[in-house]
Structures are given as structure tokens and as C-alpha cells.
Structure to design on (165 residues):
């Protein structure tokens, strides 16, 4: 039986993922992590209200087999600053905690925006299309950096699986 961690569990995708996983045979526990207190309600979903940027993650990650990283903080913050750097830092902390506890399966949410809006892009975009975000679109640049973090982590953990959505 697997224990899975879902970051961004209170978001629109996270709530659906938590519910689907909790209803799946072979999944013992879903550890739902979000900064917001309202999270999916299910008998096999255990809530953890944490901030991925500052809270200690390793104790919560301990014993988990899979990480599904859906959390995002991207967007203008209350002071008008871009929160993309915070999302990158949080992703690094999540991958560090995953390494520390020996997680072997990771799923990361990205965006098709990493391919850029270029007239030379093939349609449809396929798996081996080069990543080439528009440099003036910070959302795409942040998602590109997150994909880079995931790819680097996979290189350092060759016996692990990484899926970028």
C-alpha cells in the first residue's frame, strides 16, 4: 500500500487528485498539503496545513512513496512583487525533502507555456519539442525552471521516476 503526498491539495486540481487517489485500490494514505485550511474531505486523506517555503517538510514526507507536486504560488503577491521566485524556492525544498526520505516517484505540474508561443512550433506540440519559453512571460520562465529542477533531481536519483505534466 502506498502513501502519497499531494502539495497544493486545496487547489482545483489538488482536490480532484486527492479524491481520486483516496478512492484508488492500493493507496493507503494521501497526505494533503496546502497553506489553506480547506482541503479534500475523505477518510484516507490526512490534512497538513504547511507553507512549503518555511515549514519543516521532512517529518510529514517520512514514509511516503510518491510525491505529486501541484502547489503553485505564482501570481502577484499583496505587495505587487512576482511570486515566481517563491514557487521555485518551494519546489527546491519539496525535492530536498523527497530526497531526504527516499521518495522514488515524483509527478510535477508544469504548463504547455514552457514551449513558448512561437510561429515555428509544430502543432501539435509533442513530447520531445524543445522547451523555449517567451522570455518576457515570467509564468513560463518559472515553470521552465521547475521542470529543470525536476530533471536535475531525476539525474541525481537514477532509480526514481519523474513525470512532468
Amino acid at each position: 500500500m502506498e502513501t502519497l503526498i499531494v502539495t497544493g491539495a486545496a487547489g482545483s486540481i489538488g482536490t480532484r487528485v486527492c479524491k481520486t487517489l483516496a478512492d484508488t485500490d492500493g493507496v493507503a494514505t494521501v497526505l494533503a498539503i496546502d497553506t489553506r485550511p480547506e482541503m479534500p474531505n475523505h477518510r484516507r486523506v490526512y490534512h497538513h496545513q504547511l507553507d512549503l517555503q518555511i515549514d519543516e517538510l521532512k517529518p510529514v514526507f517520512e514514509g511516503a512513496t510518491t510525491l505529486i507536486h501541484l502547489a503553485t504560488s505564482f501570481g502577484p503577491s499583496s505587495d505587487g512583487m512576482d511570486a515566481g521566485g517563491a514557487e521555485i524556492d518551494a519546489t527546491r525544498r519539496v525535492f530536498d525533502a523527497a530526497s531526504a526520505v527516499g521518495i522514488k516517484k515524483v509527478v510535477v505540474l508544469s504548463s504547455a507555456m514552457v514551449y513558448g508561443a512561437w510561429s515555428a512550433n509544430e502543432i501539435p506540440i509533442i513530447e520531445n519539442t524543445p522547451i523555449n519559453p517567451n522570455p518576457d512571460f515570467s509564468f513560463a520562465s518559472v515553470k521552465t525552471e521547475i521542470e529543470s529542477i525536476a530533471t536535475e533531481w531525476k539525474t541525481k536519483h537514477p532509480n526514481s521516476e519523474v513525470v512532468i505534466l
The longest strand covers residues 27-34. Residues 104 and 158 are 9 Å apart (CA to CA). Confidence is low (pLDDT under 50) at residues 76-80.
